[in-house]
Amino acid sequence: MKCFLTLCAALLLAQVAHAGPQINVGVVYDYLEAGKSTYMKRVFNGGTSTAFVKVNILEMVYDADGSYREVPVKTSADISARDGLMASPARLIVPANGTQGTRLLFMGNRDRERYFRVRFVPVVPQTEDEFAISEEERQDYKDSLAAGVRVLAGYGTVFFVRPTDTRFDTRVADDTTRYALHNEGNSVVVVDEFKDCAVGNPQDCRPTIKHHIMAGRSFTFDKQPGRVYRFNLIEGSAKKPSRSKAESPHRKTTMFKTLACTALSAVCLLFVPLAWAAVERETFEVFVTIPTADFYVLPVDPQLVQREQRLGFNPVSSELSPLRAQFEVKNVGGAIGARLEAQPYLFNGKDRIDLRVTFNQQELSLERSEVVSTVDARPGRRVPLEIVAIKPSEDYQPGHYYGTVSMVFDATAPHF
């Protein structure tokens, strides 16, 4: 009998090569311009099985100290419509190597700029999830995942809704040692593709960053000798390439538009690759064939999210080995946050094994927390994921266990 139980335990969580989804949402900062009420957001599934994706929306309400809270979207007094953003459809069925879109619709007050967190969360469909599939199809999909632990990764984007009467008014203060941009308008402007490079050596650059300047706020930096600073100032659909460097007091820094290329052809040539990069990124957003260079959280081994993972059982120590993997992460806009979509555990129909999930040495919970700092996220780096079984008080019971670990990664939101 003891040998039989040991054999059962050794087979615990045996790996079967089932397929899995892997979603990509493209860019993580989206903007609804004045005069428009809808925005199409596409989701690509680069995995090897259908992705069932829930779209969740919360409004980001800023407090006086510059921090923000995520709160449910309000409903109007007569409960006939929302005062905020909604997704239609809010449930996406995305085939393997296919794309589906959801239309983000804003209804309500736009006398000021408003901000929303839009999360795209892949799930194993349940009856209450309202996916348009039969109970038999739902069970077949669940059964196909019933081997080991499934790792699913979702993403949280930031959605800006500009006010009805959008006004851009960015003031520039430039002297020999300091550069400042102050947003005197009523809508966010973006300092995009900010590069700090050595003069005469465009390859000697610090990590590229993106910065949002909220209405009434400023972006400043000190100019260092021997360094040149290039960026695009984006006001709605208008892009203004800019350049600055530390110079003697009698010289002026030049801000110019693309139309000035005839007089400044040498400088304009520097910006041609940047302009094409912006076009490419938009193309990637449409087709979502590769991750945007601005933000990604991707496993080094794509099989992590495309196949069930095995937690090996050691019959001598009576322990389950942890699952460890590496992720490549980057966010030029700042830090990366993460949370669990649901409590992670394995289940065999009777017994449960809880799981502890850590990402970059930070334990994840149902509450969002910062897992990659701005300093580490902007240049990009490789960080570890670890999933550890928590041993039950009565030891592990033999059986065939399966479960899902669903993580949601958020791009940082702008701060006042």
Which tags fit this structure?
12% helix, disordered N terminus, mainly beta, five-stranded antiparallel beta sheet, 30 strands, 416 residues, globular
Describe the structure.
This protein has 416 residues and is mostly beta strands. Mean pLDDT is 81; it is low at 1-17 and 249-291. The chain contains 5 helices and 30 strands.
Q: Gist?
A:
The chain is mainly beta. Helix content is about 10%, strand content about 45%.
Rg value: 25 Å
Helix content: 10-25%
Shape: globular
Distance between the termini: 66 Å
What's the pLDDT, averaged over the residues?
81
Beta-strand fraction estimate: over 45%
Pick out the low-confidence regions: 1-17, 249-291
Q: Number of DSSP helices? A: 5
Structural category: mainly beta
Strand tally: 30
Main pleated sheet: 15 strands, mixed
Secondary structure topology:
Layout: H1 2-10, E1 23-24, E2 29-32, E3 38-45, E4 51-62, E5 68-72, E6 74-75, E7 82-88, E8 91-94, E9 98-107, E10 114-123, H2 135-144, E11 148-161, E12 170-174, E13 178-183, E14 189-198, E15 201-205, E16 209-213, E17 218-222, E18 227-235, E19 238-245, H3 265-287, E20 295-299, H4 303-306, E21 313-314, E22 319-320, E23 323-331, E24 336-340, E25 345-347, E26 352-359, E27 362-363, E28 369-372, H5 374-377, E29 381-389, E30 402-411
Parallel strand pairs: 2-11, 11-30
Antiparallel strand pairs: 1-3, 3-9, 4-5, 4-8, 4-10, 6-7, 7-9, 10-11, 12-13, 13-17, 14-15, 14-16, 14-18, 18-19, 20-23, 21-22, 23-29, 24-28, 24-30, 25-26, 25-30, 26-27, 26-29
